[in-house]
Structure prediction request, 521 residues.
Amino acid sequence: MPSPLEEALRTFRRTPLLSGLSVASIGFSLFTIGLFGMVAINFRQALRTVAERVEVVAFVLRGTPTETLLAGSRDIEAFPEVEEVRYVSAEEALTRARGELVEFREAFRDLETNPLPASLEIRLKPEYRNAGSAQAVAERVRGFAFVDDVRYGRDWVERLDRLRNLAGLVGLVIGLAFAAVAMVIIGVTIRIIVLQRATEIAIMRLVGATNRYIRGPFLLEGIIKGAAGGLLAIGMCWLTLIVFQRTSTEVGAGLVFFGAGEALLILVFGIAIGLLGTLLSVGRHLRDV
Amino acid sequence: MIRFANVSKTYPNGVSALRDVSFQVAKGEFVFLTGHSGAGKSSILSLIFAEQKPSSGEVKVSGFPVGQLTSHQVPRLRRKLGIVFQDFRLLPYRTVEENVAFALEVTGARRELIPARVMRVLTRVGLAGKAKVHPRELSGGEQQRVAIARALANDPPIFLADEPTGNLDERASRGIFQLLQEINAGGAVVVMATHNLALVRDTPYRILELKSGEIVYDSARERRGPDPQEPA
Prediction:
């Protein structure tokens, strides 16, 4: 008796066109999802780079003793949201300003006293790089007696928050829509295959094959097709990235491909829809014949 | 082997296919089901192989109560049956021997025993020399022989034939009928639905004639009178 695997592979040999078409349809459906996922990953990556700049700056009152500043820094560093506190002295601030603000270089050179205050640059942990946390930290830092003023670029941090939420929502909706379309296409493809094999299923049932025996090769076929479609989709995504990187080096250079986890997810998703599509269409057909 | 007791069958579309049908088929019998198209012959066969369930009454086949069978039990009943149809129902992309082996494969026969059993049944139907050809290369009569070989592969005690000669010429029909007689002589019950009266005439076998879903003639009852054990 041929194993279900042999039966499944036999079907591939017997109906190469239909099998190829179903693999291609699964592949293209997953490709759209994968492509979207790749855009989402790169978008998230870009947002993360921007979010790294979310920091709270506390300007220090002139004449604050170093010991007070050091003790204060340690206290702030102990906040759960804070990753790192860096002390920027007035001199360092001036040097930085001279380097960055080239157009005011002359003005800075003629200064008799340094007008810039010393500051503490407070970097937040990645999960706290949002408007709410930045504001909370700023409020607490403002409470220190040596702090003159606190800035955290409130407007753009809030805008970044909104962008992040919107991107997440749009991603979820479009991703679900693509997944639904992929499921329908795959379901239809498998139904065609099942209908094409209706006679075979009917004969199997007539000679006393159990439903499990009949279903076995179909399910394996679904798994193989889903996996093949998943691999095809990963390959196409990779090719798209390569083409993009070659044609648009400026943008393309910064783009990243899936990690192993995401690639595995596409593969598993392919197998799952192959399996589910088969289960639904074969199950329905087994009741029909 | 087969027992119908007050069986009625009404399809979901309201068509009444069988009305209060009762009969029994004993071991070793050869029974013809005759009647016009739509008389209920195929409905009786489909109840025997549990493709349908009775709307009322009881159908028992080889000890299996068809009305109460679960989907898991149906394959067990079918392994005791050999079934052939007018349209042969062969798989076109498989060779003759593969078509026959298929019936053994799906019922879980041991792999090493399959080739010998296939050759044995092909020899029995006279097609041992055509084991490697595809069904499309065979005549209608030969294709029906392959279908019979497939049905015989599991040595079923009951053999059902639904218009097996319907697509065949006179000579091929005679050949198929002779084959069914041999199967019956081997001890199996044969139930054959046909409207080929030329075939039925002058045979010693039992005839059940159906009309509008009712049995209007039973040659066995004619010969021995009403069976007192048979439900009224």
Remarks:
- The interface with chain B takes residues 1-2, 14, 199-200, 202-211, 213-214 of chain A (CB under 8 Å).
- Residues 245 and 251 of chain A are 8 Å apart (CA to CA).
- Chain A is about 70% helix and 10% strand.
- The first strand of chain A starts at residue 55 and ends at 60.
